[in-house]
Write a structure and sequence with these properties.
By secondary structure, the chain is α/β, with parallel strands linked by helices. The protein is built from 11 helices and 10 strands. Helix 4 crosses helix 5 and helix 4 crosses helix 8. The longest helix is centred in the last third of the chain and has 20 residues. The structure holds pyridoxal-5'-phosphate. Pyridoxal-5'-phosphate (PLP) binds next to helix 5 and helix 9.
């Protein structure tokens, strides 16, 4: 390329400059070449292998016996800021491999925010157009992040929450089957695979297989289903799912399973228990994490922490040693305009 052909201006690119390129003749060759382009992406290479940290200050704050240890997996370290980067990447990889995400198709899905941010980020990095159906009630930070990456956003009824977004995206996807790749995170087995292949093995390695409990909040349930099933095949790990205690709640990203559309990927036989946490407790735990440990996490991480708090009371009473791993789903900065940080 001659210097005169270089283009270093900050004009916004159109999507379709990455894996949409012409990659060869046969469908198999083209899909293999597209997968190579995915693996070479700097954003893709930055997803996963997140730190697992011990919360020693919180253990001391809660006056836990030495035999009980708490660990948090810092998923906000992912480039899109949440655990859902893993999910979105796994769904895109599966779509390219099975031929359903072909060049020119727009990835569409319903998302309360984090998966949408991950799709939008990967769409920008890989040249895939992205349309997202988001409840109008999602936090402003999330909605503005989606448009920053160049995704198209369609709002669903704020009073119908994530279920309203699911119903609307199904209608839109059904009306344009050849235009859209419907990622369908609630029913897509690639969501589970993301965690069977990455989150679960990372936790196993980082704890040297010595964890006793795994605590994960339930949205699509992919984290618990995937990482949980992996951990169960490796050892005696108690799986704790965390859901909001009530149907109307303020813990973004989570589902109250008794009243919500139950995700198709959810296997009720897998968790050893499911704990209900109310919004105030989740918020209080997130605030405690910020003040005591200096980790600024969102409300679903707070819900995981609140569930672990209940668990350690039981374990301490029984004199049981434990090494509890919790998911730190996303960062507190995503909730600055919500009520999460209002209390002093
Ligand atoms: C903030 C947050 N926490 C937790 C979850 C739950 O993760 P999963 O969908 O794997 O159940 C989500 C899902 O969207 C989320 O956005």
């Amino acid at each position: 390329m001659k210097n005169s052909e270089l283009s270093t201006q900050f004009a916004l690119p159109r999507t379709g400059i990455g894996i949409d390129a012409d990659f060869g003749d046969s469908a198999v060759e083209a899909s293999a070449a597209r997968m190579r382009a995915v693996e070479e992406s700097a954003v893709v290479q930055s997803i996963g292998e997140t730190p697992l940290v011990r919360l020693r200050r919180l253990e001391a704050h809660w006056r836990l016996p030495d035999s009980i240890e708490l660990y948090l997996k810092l998923e906000w370290v992912n480039p899109g800021g949440s655990i859902k980067d893993r999910t979105a990447l796994s769904i895109i990889r599966a779509g390219i491999t099975d031929g359903s995400l072909t060049p020119g198709r727009t990835l569409i899905d319903a998302t309360s925010g984090n998966t949408g941010i991950a799709y939008a980020m990967l769409g920008a990095a890989l040249g895939i157009p992205v349309t997202l159906v988001v409840p109008e009630s999602a936090s402003d930070e999330r909605k503005r992040t989606l448009t920053a990456y160049g995704a198209e956003v369609i709002f669903s009824d704020p009073y119908e929450g994530s279920d309203g977004a699911i119903r609307l995206v199904r209608e839109i996807a059904a009306a344009g089957t050849d235009r859209f790749f419907y990622a369908d995170q609630y029913n897509n087995p690639a969501n589970i695979l993301a965690h069977t292949r990455t989150t679960g093995p990372e936790i196993w390695r980082q704890t040297e297989g010595k964890l006793t409990h795994f605590v994960a909040a339930l949205g699509t349930t992919g984290t618990l289903m995937g990482a949980g099933s992996f951990l169960k095949t490796r050892g005696h790990v108690t799986l704790v799912g965390v859901q909001p205690a009530e149907a109307f709640h303020g813990i973004e990203g989570l589902k109250h399973l008794p009243t919500a559309i139950v995700p198709g990927i959810f296997n009720p036989a897998l968790p050893d228990r499911i704990v209900g946490i109310d919004t105030e407790n989740a918020f209080a735990a997130a605030r405690a994490l910020a003040r005591v440990e200096g980790f600024f996490a969102g409300s679903s991480t707070g819900a995981n922490l609140a569930a672990a708090a209940g668990l350690v009371v039981e374990l301490a009473r029984q004199g049981e040693p434990a090494r509890i791993v919790m998911i730190g789903c996303d960062a507190g900065s995503r909730y600055l305009t919500t009520g999460l940080w209002d209390a002093n």
